[in-house]
Amino acid sequence: MAANESWVLKVPAAKSEDAQKHFEGRLELEATAFEVHEDMKNGVERFVLLDVRKQDAFAAEHIKGATNFCHLEIEKESVKKLSRELVYVTYCSGVGCNASAKGAAKLAKLGFKVKELLGGLQWWKGEGYPTEKGAKG
Predict the structure, then answer these.
(1) Is residue 67 classed as helix, strand or coil in its secondary structure?
(2) What CATH number corresponds to the domain at position 106?
(3) Are 112 and 102 in contact (CB under 8 A)?
(4) What is d(CA 101, CA 99) in angstroms, rounded to the nearest whole number?
(5) Which range of residues forms the domain containing residue 117?
(6) What does the pLDDT look like over 15-68, one tens digit per residue?
(7) Within-domain flag for 24
(8) How many CB atoms are closer than 10 A to CB 39?
(9) Sheet holding 47-51, edge to edge
(10) Domain presence at residue 25
(11) For residue 135, is pLDDT > 90?
(12) Which of 33, 66, 113, 125 is deepest in the core (most CB within 10 A)?
């Protein structure tokens, strides 16, 4: 590529309407550590934070206030205890893990409203938010 050519602009930017639809769609599916932390701090109860890792990983460390529900166990029978009125925000270890996406996909397929916590436990801790140890949750 010549020195004055652009890697960024090699593919033209999307039309503003298409970009708006794309980015608003992402916001419907994702939540940040800040957003989740602030809502939990302020007592918002319209969502449940689900750690979808295995129980031993949850016991080793998890986000304070999270509930453990391993993505491998999410199925039609096991979700009967979940409310369909709430939004479920899934998370896993971080950017190198896709358990949160797997859990969210399974829940969505079963008719639940879901979002994914961006960056999972890794980004949560990077923001300095509280974690705890133990199998409770």
Answers:
(1) strand
(2) 3.40.250.10
(3) no
(4) 5
(5) 30-132
(6) 999 999 999 999 999 999 999 999 999 999 999 999 999 999 999 999 999 999
(7) no
(8) 16
(9) 30-31, 113-117, 87-91, 47-51, 67-68
(10) no
(11) no
(12) 66
